[in-house]
Amino acid sequence: MRRPSVLVIDDEYINLAILEEILKDQYDVTIMESGVDAISLLSREGLLPDVILLDIRMPQMNGFEVLEYLKSKDYLKEIPVIFITAENSEINGLAAGAADFIQKPFNPQVVKLRVDNQVRLKIYTGSLEELLRKKTEELSQIQGRIIEEMASIIEYRNLESGSHVKRTSELTLLLIKHMIEHSEYAQELIDQNPSALVKAVPLHDVGKIIIPDYILLKPGRLTADEFEIMKRHTTAGKKIAESILAEGDSQYLRHCMDICHYHHENFDGTGYPAGLGGKDIPLSARIVSVVDVYDALTSNRVYKSAYTHEKALQIIEEETGTKFDPVIVKCFFGIGGSFL
User: Fold this and answer.
1) Collapsing DSSP states into helix, strand and coil, what is residue 218?
2) Nearest Cα to 54, choosing from 28, 74, 81?
3) pTM
4) What angle do CA 29, 32, 36 make, to 5 degrees?
5) Taking burial as the number of CB atoms within 10 A of a residue's CB, which of 59, 175, 223, 252 is the most buried?
6) First-to-last CA distance in the chain?
């Protein structure tokens, strides 16, 4: 088992020697005689120390300047810094981000206790963070299973084969990969975590759980009143996603809410529920809009028979610029042979 490590930074060798002697039985101690050298060491080494003891008064680069550098590189998130001082600088040091203080002249028991406390606190914090990570992962898995079950319920209520969710997820993945390689939306997709977007696709119609069967399963055209009720599934889906995923991954939640809420918006602003148009419609929803319509066109539904692949692409092409984003349609046509 690796012993905890301590980096001691002080321009006076006698102080370095004393602190090394106090700590060497319990810790792996590295000593540096200047802040500049210590920063160079931290930049080179892959393994960071568990604690840093840092003198305040040093030439070239004083302790506060070293601490500011550590803060700028986010080292303070990982490494507690204990200031070494003969002055009454505690308030300024704590305000700057130091975890504790050791006064000169050194009391060996105090030095050991202060370093021990910081190491124990770091280990305890790390354990809590690992526990939180595991619990968050477990929560995410539970949320995922809930979403999958709800999506399956919607599919079977629609009297579908249960494969709509699978097909739309696979098509979305193919489309996103093509868009990252061949479209102006490449960087936007990368920034938005494309894997979270694909993971969100199964939830797109979850709001249909509130729609009565007589509307959801109606074989003919919906009346105006029935269509108004059907449109509510977008807003309901957003609320359901938010309630299930409120404690989960923020990008995943954002994609789920946007896709549920806006995948029936049209590029020309004539869709629902908000009448958004163009790039005001979230990119995730614009992508799922194309995929969802293609799968609906090429599948048997209670109100129609399946169209051929060619006929579905023709319909999508005719509605490019009105219903669909032209850039996304171009990319969708670019993967046309991948899902025959």
Assistant:
1) coil
2) 81
3) 0.63
4) 140
5) 175
6) 56
